[in-house]
Amino acid sequence: MRYKIQHITKYSYQQRVSHCYNLAYMSPRNTPRQRCLSSTITLNPTSSSSSRRTDYFGNESFHFEIQRAHKQLTINIVSAVETNPQFTVQDLDFGISCKDAKDQIESSSNKEVLLAREFLLDSPMIKNTEFLKDYAAPSFSDNTPLLSSVRNLTSRIFSDFKYCPEATTIATPLTEVFETKKGVCQDFAHLLIACLRVMGFPAKYVSGYIETIPPPGVERLVGADATHAWISVFSPAEGWVEFDPTNDTIATEQHIITAWGRDYFDVTPLKGVVFGGGEDPHLSVSVDVKRIE
Amino acid sequence: MSRPLDLHKYFPYQRPSNAALDEVYAENGEVKPYWNRLLQTLEGINPVLLEQKKAKALRILRDDGATYNIYSELTDFASTWSLDLIPNVLSSEEWASIEAGLLERAELFNLFLKDIYGPRNLVKHGILPPESLFAHSGFLRPCDGIQLQGDHQLILHGVDMVRDAQRGEMCVISDRTQNPSGIGYALENRTVMSRVLPSLYRESHVHRLASFFHRFRTKLTSLSPNPEQARIVMLTPGALNESYFEHAYIANYLGFHLVRNGDLVVRNGYLWMKSFGGLSRVDVIVRRVDDSYCDPVELRGDSLLGVPGLLEPVRAGRVVIANPLGSGILENPIYLKYLPAISKALIGRELRLPSVATYWCHDPKDMSYIRSNFSKLVIKPTFRGGGDISIYAGCLSTEEQTGLLARIEANKIGYVAQPILDTSHLPTYGEKEITSRPAILRSFTTASDSSYTVMPGGLTRVGVEESQFFISNQVGSQSKDTWIIESEPLALQTQVQTSTQIRQDADRISLPSRVAENLFWMGRYAERAEASLRLLRTVFIMFNGEEPLSLQCKKILLSAVTNVTNTFPGFVDADESIINDPIEHLLSVVTDGKRRGSVRSDLNAMLYCADESREQVSSDTLRVINDIRDALTELDHTFDDNTITAPEEALDPLVTALMALSGLSHESMVRGVGWRFMEIGRRLERAHRTNSVINHILSDSVQEQDEGIMITAVLLCLENLISYRRRYSANLSVPTCLDMVMLDTSNPRSLLFQLESLLNHLNALPKAQTNTNELLPAEQIALEAQVLIKMSSLSDLSQEQSSQRPNLKEKLMRLNELINSLSDLITDRYFDHREDARQLVKKSWADNE
Fold first, then answer.
1. What's the predicted TM-score (pTM) here?
2. Angstrom distance (rounded) from CA B662 to CA B672
3. What is the CATH code for B370-419?
4. What SS3 state is found at A16?
5. What is the pLDDT of residues B114-129, one digit of tens each?
6. B835–A275: do the CB atoms touch at under 8 Å?
């Protein structure tokens, strides 16, 4: 599938910003199932210096500094990508068992497995996950295939938790999400990652977009899409496989990846330091995902 | 050979019976020949002389400002670096094998660092457990892929080692790769030793240190994108850092600018220093700020010590940082466990210099060893910056041990355990005797050309007690110079590079604007403190004078103290009982450091500014600053004693020390931009204070019999009484007094004199080229103030009206406004004003990674 994505981020400041330094993760990356065909970034005001590079996790990062005074910053990114599905759903039930997977993760000297162990460890936003063990455990048993167990847990999170944009911010800790059983895609992704890690399976955070298809007869709204987040779990046999707890599904062709990392911290869409600007800048984001025939 | 009997031994060194190994003695129990010579000399020195030498060493260290700062509160500043007179001595033969081991180790750590931020083969091939890298906070993912040009990633490598008494060989305890401290202290130790024991030093054929520093500097220069004109800066966290002395010392010695993060800015993809003359490019940073604090955009977002956006010019190779960002990972003690395997993988053999046995709690076998040998082990956190410290489990109670074990069980990846080594001892000159102390040596290796060079010497530290395992400056350990002794006299070529030559290379043209600002405030605070002291001294003298003062006089003088020093409420509207017995309150204006406007708080601020601009201040000035510190401490002792009879005399030493400071800045500071700013600060403050004193003492008119007292007070306070008497004999009158303190340009304390100097200094500051003859705003204001004073009619000003001198008051108030706006204009124009930097995304909890 081919998509054209327009992602506009607008910061409005209370006071003048004299200069700023930023780091953005907003261009789609290449993955085994996805190719970025083009990505154009337009800044207003224009930057005095900028660069693109591939970061530690293989993501495309965009660095820029603005030395002109401004009260509003707009980043407009237009990208084209080609995506493929991962593999079909029935494959999940024929894969490696949880026990074998765990044994291999612990003892294999295979390079991929060794490197995947990075995603078992605590990360900046996912720490002290022990409290989730009891919740996660019922989905896993020694002989069930790992991937179908993960699929099961994905479904349970989908049904146990309520999607509720007002309930959380990026600063809401996992313990609170778990208690209130409310959150957004990013919380559910963090939760699923935490559950997987506590069970001994490497998992990473995937940020990107999802194509939304309006109900029949309803016109697709431009700019009404949003950024999305899901997860990827490591199986020593099948490699990295993506699941989406917010939509109770394995990731599909409609899941377009911008970046992945240990958690949101590694792939924050836009971060940086601004000089001036006052308190609480206003942020508005508009995303439009359009299929190209 | 055994030591000959010497009847003149004052301090015989007795080998302690319990120490298994002592550096003085060879395996056969005899004193090593080079130790014999050294000890003979030291033992033969008369005790009084040796104490004098010890005192001399301390004095030189203080005069050089050599401190190791352990800050508890701001007022309690720094402790002088502690140096033992007996050096650590090693023969060239012994040293050769240590040196070879250190070179090999530096080469290995260099390759190791390259691999970590490059291919990570050590992890991919299973030599390093992934957790040992990926779980460590010192592994900085944003620094992945950054490689310096040339053969070296690791530029400066520090290694702490002890001689293991059991095996008799050197054993590495830890590596320092973040920003190894100590080379400056080692150099200072050497400088002091060569001055205190010159003939012993000369005759001992000690290897010199200068070439090491030369090579270090050459390497840094060669790393620069433009080696011909490399601008190298040393980035310090600031004067509150415990080893700030060393930062300033090395920067000065090698001719680097000493900068704080605020002096640097990234613009258009390059790094710049905000200097007095504008922005100037920076090519190389010698980093003394921990790597994770260096860029709040990509590294720790809560850092106040970083330069936002720094990583980008680093990636582009436009600025080089040594040691590179991310190098702190090599300090991870887990790697000591895997070092033999790492070494085999990277250089094909094991290291010849062994490291201390290290057990990682994450390894099940190691953990079971740790559990069963817990009280024999030192538990270390794997990450040094986390606030956790090494603990010897043997000193803990059973309860504490259980607690520590539980902490470990919850975070096994984060801890290692190491045995306590039985460390060899060194003779140490303590309280008038030579005793035996355990010793640790920190050695340094610098990248040089295509290989490495080891400093022939290093920094030796000894324990406070005979049986002590932790040796650290934090607990007040002593340090020693380290002598590598040649059996033959050294060829002269090792001394070719002298420090003065290096210094001459220094680029002293531009000055960071922060330093200019600090010098400005140093001048202001010094003058402010001096002026307050003079006023207080005057008040003491008047109160203790022959003639009893009238109540009105007392009130005017005391409220002048409050108004001039800005220590409200003070004596304004105070009870009559306080007015009649003000001593205690007056003393608090001198000594209470917590009271804003007190002499002590001004001096603390002055000392802080002096610290912050230390590299601009001459060594004589540092000595005077020490005198000021001493005088302050002395003052506390004097006033603690409740029996003060003449407080005015107690203030004299401090006034003298401050006058010496102003004299020195006049006589021995180069007339550069820095000096100008110090003088501008001083003149502005003096104008302000003189104005204030005249205003608060003379603008109220008093009864005729008291007028003489008020005039005397003003003249005394401004140090003009004697000249006045000479000129006008005993005839005290307000117009002649005002003439002298306001209009007389031959009087260095008059208002007009200050304005004329200010105009001169402002005019001499470098300016942007323009086509017009327009005066700068600051010059205009200074000129206006000058004219305002000049256009004075003495009889107008002296005129009285309802017990006031309204014309005088009005003129002085206007002048005060002008002086204040002059100060603001100078500050705005010349000093850097940073806006607050904020994180775009607030995620405080995510940053405690």
1. 0.86
2. 16
3. 3.30.1490
4. strand
5. 999 999 999 999 999 9
6. yes
